Model the fold of this input.
Amino acid sequence: MGIGNIGLPGILLIAVVVLVLFGRGKISGLMGEVGKGITSFKKGINEGQQELEEEAADTAKDVTPETDKDKV
Done:
């Protein structure tokens, strides 16, 4: 038997023990913090993607070749 063989009764027992040890208020506060962290992470990823897309759009706009003014 390994840890990968827990099953539903084992998970329920672990959940009850954690609930008794920490209490409902602490667990709900912790889950709220985890949710905020996930939301912040997703927001950061979206901002990074938008920044990369804006950089790519800026470089795609400037396709005019540079001319040498001394040759003319």
